[in-house]
Amino acid sequence: MFNNLDARILPYIKWSSVEHVLIDVTKANNHYVGGRVFAFRKELRFDEIKRRLPDFTETVKEIYDDRFTLLLNIGKGINTRTLKYAIIQIPVSWLYDGQFAALLGDIRSNVQAPIKYYDQHAERSFSSWADTYL
C-alpha cells in the first residue's frame, strides 16, 4: 500500500512456477476474472495515504494509462480450473529509473514463457513506453 520494501511483507514468486506473463495498463482488479468491485475501499485507501503522505496527489481511477501491471500466471487455483495470477502493479518511478526494464530483463532470463500483452490497449501503451525507455 505504501510501496513497502520490507522483505517480510513482499510476496515471493518462484520463477519456475510462472507459466504466463502478461503486461497490462494498470486497472482496478474488477477488470480481471474473479476481481471484485470495492471502489469505496479504494477511495478510503487513497484518503488514508493522503493523510499519511501529504505530497501524494494521485486520484482514484479505474484505468491508469500511464503505468503498467504484470500478471504472472502461477498455475490454477486449488480445486478449480481458473487460472491463478499474481498481480504486480509497477510503481511509476520504476518506469523511468530503469527498475521496470531490469525486472523485465530478469523475467525474460528466468521464465520460460514469453511476455505477452493483456490486450491491444496494453500493447500500444507498452510500445510507446518501450520506444523511449528500453
Cross-sheet strand order for the largest sheet: 3-2-1-4
Amount of beta strand: 15-25%
Q: Can you summarize the main beta sheet? A: 4 strands, mixed
Count of DSSP strands: 4
Return the structural class: alpha+beta
Q: State the low-pLDDT regions, or none.
A: none
Summed up, the helix count is 4
Mean pLDDT: 81
Q: What is the N-to-C order of secondary-structure elements (H for helix, E for strand)?
A: EHEEHHEH
Binned, the helix content reads 25-40%
Give the end-to-end Cα distance, rounded to a whole number of Å: 27 Å
Evaluate the radius of gyration.
16 Å
Query: Judging from the principal axes of the Cα atoms, what is the shape?
Result: globular
Outline of the structure:
The protein has helices spanning 39-52, 92-97, 99-110, 120-133; strands at residues 20-27, 63-76, 83-89, 115-117.
What does this entry look like structurally?
This protein has 134 residues and is of the alpha+beta class. The chain is built from four helices and four strands. It has helices at 39-52, 92-97, 99-110, 120-133; strands at 20-27, 63-76, 83-89, 115-117. The protein has a four-stranded mixed beta sheet with strand order 3-2-1-4. The longest helix has 14 residues, at 39-52. It is globular. The mean pLDDT is 81.
